[in-house]
Amino acid sequence: MEKENSPCYRHFHLLIYLLSITAGVSKSTIEPCSGSDSCPALLGYTLYADLKLSEVPSFHVDPLAVLASNAFDPSFPDVADRILPAGLLLRVPTRCSCADGIRRSLSARYRTRPGDTLASIAGSVFGGLATPDQIREANGIPDPAALEVGRTLVVPLPCACFNLSDNFLPAVYLSYAVRAGDSVPSIAAMYSTTVTDIMNVNSLGSTAAINPGDVLVIPLPACPSRFSNYASDFGMIVANGTYAITADNCVQCSCGPGNLNLYCTPASLSVSCSSMQCRSSSLIVGNITTKSTGAGCNVTSCNYSGFVNGSIVTKLTKSLQPRCPVQPQLPSLTPPPTTLMRDLFLAPTPLPLPPEAGGALPTPKPSPKSPVSGELALPGVSPATGPDATAMVGGSASSMNRKEAILIFCSALSLLLAFALPSTDTSILLH
Q1: I need a surface site. Which of 102, 109, 269, 292 has the fewest CB within 10 A?
Q2: Which of 11-25, 225-239, 387-401 is predicted least confidently?
Q3: Straight-line distance from the first to the last Cα atom of the chain, in angstroms, rounded to the nearest whole number
């Protein structure tokens, strides 16, 4: 009975209770739909471990499209092998379909491994964008406790189309899982949109109250394309400040930051491409010439018009404008980051190895502390006893006795509760 009446024991169960009720009240914005149409959309995905681009969970999307959606430089050396840091928030492009009367992305796949649960797949691997119940229902899993190892699961993820417009202006929608410390103004600032737009799209009401775990859809200003219906890239829309690679990696189409007119140029990738020259002209895609006259400015441009039957379609456009336009401004591209500043106290704990996108799973390394073959080994974790005291304190385990370890655990638990209950007198928790 002494254990059950101890403050540490009570605090542990209170924390578990708080986590359970928090998970139960998470909200998600849902767009009803009918028919079989789909639209381009974005997923706000947080990396759960240090991963190469090719190791990001299988969303069935070209890695170049991920680079483009995040304004990363695709010409950076060995970009596919660059290690992206855990905690990095990526924009992942997807197709938003209509399934069972609501908008969902159904392209994500995950192959289960030993130790997986629906909760760990939804919360850790897919960053809270999905829920365990959604994965269970999408895959007809009768008993979540008996999850079959090696099974490939469909992971339904939230998305929205809303006619690809926001306040009658072109927009693409990003699904975003709210994190601790987020507010509607901070999210609006992060994505260069407005508080009012986020509140209206998500029906937040006057209080704009959001909680960690809620999934919002964020309207992002975008540049629509006007390609032929026969083009394989018909319907392309590019979020402001980013770009898209199309036409078999031959053409790069950028949006902003100066305006919302799509501007396409030859891509910087070393690939073999069909002709990009406009007929009856020496101009190629992206070229613009101007000539001032007494009546205004004669503007001639060679524009990309889509990828049809393996060929790049171009269109020569001539117009008379009041004044000569300036050269289009391109989004600023950056190398994919390798580090991420994070609060050390809230640093993420080690998580399972990533799946190989669309392929076989990596074989976990056996733990040096256990002879069991195939057992997953995490830094500082013993399969038999849990967290390794040597890893926690950076010294010999013999320098810490059991009582000291329990005191440290209880103190850390009390601090966590103090953050979870900001209106509670912390002196009560610490006694």
Answers
A1: 292
A2: 387-401
A3: 18
Separation of alpha carbons 252 and 268, rounded Å: 8
Q: Which pLDDT score, from 0 to 100, does residue 61 have? A: 85
Tokens matching residue 149: 């190892």
Is 364 within 8 Å of 350 (Cβ atoms)?
Answer: no
Look at residue 25 in the predicted model and tell me its pLDDT.
Answer: 53
What band does 277 get if pLDDT is binned at 50, 70 and 90? very high
Q: Which two tokens stand for residue 8?
A: 């540490």
Nearest to 358 by CA among 38, 54, 28: 54
Neighbouring residues of 260: CB distance < 8 A, sequence distance ≥ 6:
169, 170, 221, 222, 223, 240
**Contact yes or no for 429/11 (Cβ under 8 A):** yes
The tokens 């990396």 sit on which residue?
A: 47
At 55 the pLDDT is 80
For residue 44, pLDDT over 90 is answered with yes
pLDDT of residue 6: 45
pLDDT reading at 146 higher than 80: yes
Structure tokens at 157: 């993820």
CB of 172 closer than 8 Å to CB of 160: no
* Over residues 252-261, mean pLDDT: 90
Q: ∠ CA 402-7-424 to the nearest 5 degrees? A: 130
Residue 138 to residue 170: CA distance in whole angstroms: 32
pLDDT given at position 11: 41
Q: Which long-range contacts (CB under 8 A, 24 or more apart) does 18-23 make?
A: 18/417, 18/420, 18/421, 22/211, 22/212, 22/213, 23/213
Q: CA 159 to CA 40: how far, in whole Å?
A: 9
Are 110 and 125 in contact by the 8 Å Cβ rule? The answer is yes
| Residue 187 and residue 176 in contact, taking contact as beta carbons nearer than 8 Å | yes
Contact 276, 282 (CB under 8 A): no
| 3-state secondary structure labels for all residues of 106-157 | CCCEEECCCCCCHHHHHHHHCCCCCCHHHHHHHHCCCCHHHCCCCCEEECCE
Question: What type of residue is 316?
Answer: L
256 in the Ramachandran plot: left (φ > 0), alpha (ψ -120 to 50) or beta? left
pLDDT band at 369 (very low <50, low <70, confident <90, very high): very low
Nearest in space to 250 (alpha carbons), one of 232, 234, 240, 265: 265
Can you read off the two tokens belonging to residue 314? 């171009």
Outline where DSSP puts E strands in 364-422: 381-382, 386-387
Beta-bridge partners for 215: 28, 177
